[in-house]
Amino acid sequence: GPKSGGPLYLYRLLSQAPPDVLSRAQRVASAPLPGPTGERNLYRLVPRDGVLCLAEDDTDRQRQLDAVLAVGSRALWPAQAKTRAHWQRLPRDIQARVSLVDEWAAQGTSFDAVLLHGTPEELIAVQQVLAGREGPVVSVERLAPGDPAVPLERLVVERSVSINTAAAGGNASLMAMA
Q1: Measured in Å, how far apart are the chain's first and last C-alpha atoms?
Q2: How far, in Å, CA of 169 to CA of 171, rounded?
Q3: Is 143 within 8 Å of 114 (Cβ atoms)?
Q4: Model pLDDT for residues 95-126, shown as the tens digit of each residue
Q5: In degrees rounded to 5, what are phi and psi of residue 23?
Q6: How far is CA 82 from the centre of its chain?
Q7: What gap in Å lies between CA 143 and CA 145, rounded to an integer?
Q8: How far apart (Å, rounded) are the C-alpha atoms in residues 143 and 61?
Q9: Domain map of the chain by residue range?
């Protein structure tokens, strides 16, 4: 049913997702879902609020940024000399979608996903830092340096809303009246 997970959840059950998983899901990026009488179900994909992009190489960092922008999210880059130089080469409208952060590990730095082009050892180090932070669990997607296949489906969130229309005699707008 609509409350048990959407199209993107199904791919988590596979050992390897098809390469076009997000384009398949975007066909129903916002759609009503069938449900029982007296219930209205809506499904949609929304971009994650902020994605921390960790990469030593400009090409990998640009691949991450392209993926983040493709889903409509915002990127956070560590404020290092290399990333600042890359940021300065970006068009102004793209610069507005990238935040440079001095300490990404700080509690006040907000992001809900991490893209890492790095080694397994770097992944462990990032996960240890994230485990020490308070708040929700943040997923990390690690790619090998030079890997162009950034998984776009990991940068969106599935939202499903179920509205009980039977409680107001089938008219949900009556429930909003004070």
Answers
A1: 31
A2: 6
A3: no
A4: 999 999 999 999 889 999 999 999 999 999 99
A5: -65, -35
A6: 25
A7: 6
A8: 12
A9: 2-46+156-176, 50-155
Strand 30-33 to 139-143 pairing: unpaired
DSSP notation for 59-100:
HHHHHHHHHHHHTT-EEEEE--HHHHHHHHTS-HHHHTTEEE
DSSP string, 108-174: T---SEEEEES-HHHHHHHHHHHHTS-SS--EEEEE-TT-----GGGGEEEEEEEEE-GGGTT-GGG
Q: Which residues pair with 41 in a beta bridge?
A: 33, 162
Residue 38 makes CB contacts below 8 A (sequence gap 6+) with 164, 165, 166, 167, 170
* pTM for the structure as a whole: 0.78
Other Cβ atoms closer than 10 A to 55? 23
Q: What angle do CA 107, 50, 29 make, to 5 degrees?
A: 145
Q: How far is CA 12 from the centre of its chain?
A: 15
CATH code of domain 50-155: 3.40.50
The pLDDT of residue 41: 79
Which residue type occupies 43?
Y
Comparing CA positions, the residue from 48, 53, 62, 50 lying closest to residue 126 is 53
Q: What is the C-alpha separation between 74 and 76, in angstroms, rounded?
A: 7
Q: Is 29 helix (H, G, I), strand (E, B) or coil?
A: coil
